[in-house]
Amino acid sequence: MTFSKNLEVIVLFVTILACSGAASPAPLKNNTADGKGTLGVIIPTAIPCWFDNETAVLVQMEVTDCAIQPCYMDAGSTYELAPTFIPAHTTSSLTYRLDYYYQGTYVNFGVTNHSDTFVAGTAYKIVREVVIPQRIRNHIGHFHVLLEDETSAKVLSRCVSGLIRY
To answer: Would residue 51 count as lying in a domain?
Structure first.
């Protein structure tokens, strides 16, 4: 085998290794320094809710101690839901509304306001921390993550399946 043939084999091998690594799910990010669990990139990714016309691109959705839906959560415990997204339009503020829907009932976790400027084409991650109430334990449903801009246009509207235990 000549030198160029060896080089071709090595390049092919490295290319195969690089491509095979790209298809694997992203590793969990350790977030235990502040007392919380790990933030996992969930698969399958969060689906659009109710055919909402969102304007952003979802890069990934992370949920504490969850990598595969449905996300198992314990009532009374604290969890983070963190979408990473790329807005299509620049906006001067966003609101993050979080609800949990199960069996015709919904639980509103409230709204947080983010007055930062979000520039179109740039990726952003907003982390939302919630305590799961005891009244929804033993229910399977979904979390609705809703980001809206200052005109109330839906920037992101995604659902994450959750099973509340204990």
So the answer is: yes
Structure tokens at 90: 């620049």
Structural domain boundaries, residue 40: 26-165
Q: Identify the CA nearest to 41 among candidates 55, 24, 56, 54.
A: 24
Mean pLDDT per 10-residue interval, the chain, length 166 residues = 38 30 31 52 76 87 93 96 95 95 94 94 95 94 95 93 93
Residue type, 30: N
Q: How is 118-142 classified by DSSP, letter by letter?
A: B-TT--EE--EEEEPPGGGTTEEEE
> Is 21 among the domain residues?
no
How many domains would you assign to the chain? 1
Measuring CA to CA, which residue among 140, 141, 115, 110 is closest to residue 128?
A: 110
- pLDDT on residue 22: 31
What pTM was estimated for this model as a whole?
0.74
* Each residue's pLDDT tens digit, 31-70: 333 445 676 787 767 778 876 689 999 999 999 999 999 9
User: What distance in Å separates the CA atoms of residue 23 and residue 141, rounded to the nearest whole number?
Assistant: 29
Note whether 39 and 28 are within 8 A (CB). Answer: yes
**Which domain CATH number covers 145?**
2.60.40.770
